[in-house]
Each structure stands twice: as C-alpha cells, then as structure tokens.
User: What shape does this take?
Amino acid sequence: MKLTVKKPIFAESASFFVNQASQVSGKVIIKKDHWVIDAKSLLGVLALSLQPGQEIDLEVDESESDQFLKIITEEGLVEK
Assistant: This one.
C-alpha cells in the first residue's frame, strides 16, 4: 500500500515504528526508491531517512495490515 510520511521517522519514532512492525508475525517490507527494507530492522528504517511528504510502499501480511496501519497512522507517522 502507498503511504505518505507525515513526520520524520528517526530516533524515537523509528524505534516505535520498528517495535510495532515486530509485533506482526509475517514480513513487513518498506520500499522507497531503490531501497527494499525489512521494517523490523532499526538500522534499515534509519537508513531510509524518512521525511514528511515522501511516499513509501508498505507491504504487510493482509491478516495483520489493518492493525499495524491503524497504530502507525494514529501515532501520526504516515497517512494513506
């Protein structure tokens, strides 16, 4: 699913994002430009240097995507 970053995902927000992704039993993948990152990897998420206005493609196992998306959206990290 295509998402737009709403606030910088760095340091504390990156840690929150990775912790939430780690709660998903399946794979959580972030695609940005030529990067393909495991969202459960803090170093991977930090390497993306996600800034407001950037678009990412998030791939989450369908059965758990709604809950994960709800949490990161309510935290103000991304929007659909």
Q: What stands out?
A: Residues 38 and 74 are 21 Å apart (CA to CA). Strands lie at 2-5, 28-32, 35-38, 55-60, 78-79. The helical segments are 12-22, 42-48, 62-74.
